[in-house]
Design a protein that fits this description.
Residues 230-248, 255-271 have a biased composition (Low complexity). This is Phosphoadenosine phosphosulphate reductase domain-containing protein. Residues 225-271 are annotated as: Disordered. The protein is an alpha/beta fold. It is built from nine helices and seven strands. Helix 2 crosses helix 8 (213-228). The longest helix is centred in the middle third of the chain and has 19 residues, at 144-162. The chain has one domain (22-261). Strand 3 (90-96) and strand 4 form a beta hairpin. The protein starts with 6 loop residues before the first helix and ends in a 22-residue tail after the last strand. The protein has a seven-stranded mixed sheet with strand order 6-5-1-2-3-4-7, sandwiched between helices. The protein has helices at 7-12, 33-44, 70-87, 125-132, 144-162, 178-195, 205-208, 213-228, 231-235, and strands at residues 25-29, 58-63, 90-96, 105-111, 167-170, 200-203, 248-249.
Length: 271
């Protein structure tokens, strides 16, 4: 192509990676083995997974439902958060700001040096269940509680964070959960079509690596067991000493995201 080319030729020319805008990668973190395995893979070799070497384009997002197992909180505080601090990976911890959707979401912490996983936000899943006099709803794989306390929260945070900018959404389905991933992708394609743009593209690293649950657990155990023997890990504070949750409302606090402009976090990784 000549040094100067008319607009028509420029429009038809292929876009090289040099000029292609870099998309953020958002990992939905659920404190469990699946999403932890993906995080460890990203930390070990960022470029192999399409990330910048310094992980500046990775955002780890944790939807705080409340009532999490204490050993899960302690595990993450002692063994996972130090890794994020070392590499200065951004961790966003967000929850529902109240019982009603109109109250929006609350960002409890947004940091590249996270210190604690909060035990609860302002409105816990157990608060909702007690108020409704019901139990977690898992019939027909619908996971309605996850949608309200994980998917809905993550949708609202993402809408405020990215606006009309597309991003890559990572969920920790393993190889035996192909059906869940296919359902999730189908929902997202529908949202993208209705919006007339690519809101986000779902990505399932464990499925691409053909990793089943046993392999996932083996990797997590192997890598975190080594760290658990280090003085730093042993001296880390326990989850029981975590301070009460505080935070600031996100820009989408009073905005309900409609399906055409939402990203489908239909079934987040199990805790």
């Amino acid at each position: 192509m000549p040094a100067y080319a008319p607009p028509a030729q420029l429009a038809a020319a292929p876009v090289t990676d040099t000029f292609r805008p870099k998309r953020a990668t958002v990992l939905s973190y659920g404190l469990g083995a699946d999403s932890t395995a993906i995080l460890l893979m990203y930390l070990a070799d960022p470029t192999a997974h399409g990330l910048e070497p310094d992980l500046s384009d990775l955002i780890v997002v944790y939807a705080v439902t409340g009532d999490e197992w204490e050993d899960s909180l302690s595990y993450c505080d002692r063994l996972v958060l130090p890794l994020l601090r070392e590499r200065r990976v951004r961790l966003v911890q967000v929850c529902r700001a109240g019982k009603t959707d109109a109250e929006g979401v609350l960002v409890l912490d947004d940091s590249r040096t996270p210190q604690r996983i909060p035990q609860a936000g302002l409105w816990r899943l157990s608060d909702e269940l007690r108020a409704a006099g019901t139990v977690p709803m898992l019939a027909s794989g619908q996971r309605r509680c996850s949608i309200r306390f994980k998917g809905w929260v993550l949708d609202h945070w993402a809408a405020a964070e990215f606006g009309a900018t597309s991003y890559r959404r990572v969920i920790g389905y393993h190889y035996d959960e192909m059906g869940r991933a296919e359902k999730d992708s189908k929902i997202q394609r529908k949202h993208n079509t209705e919006a007339g743009r690519t809101i986000c593209e779902p990505h399932y690293p464990l499925i691409l690596a053909k990793m089943k649950r046993a392999a996932v657990e083996a990797i997590v155990y192997e890598q975190t067991a080594r760290r658990s023997k280090s003085p730093t890990a042993r001296s880390a504070p326990s989850a029981g000493s975590a301070p009460p949750a505080t935070g600031t409302r996100s820009g989408c606090a009073n905005t309900r995201t409609s399906p055409p402009t939402s990203c489908s976090w239909s079934s987040c990784p199990r805790p």
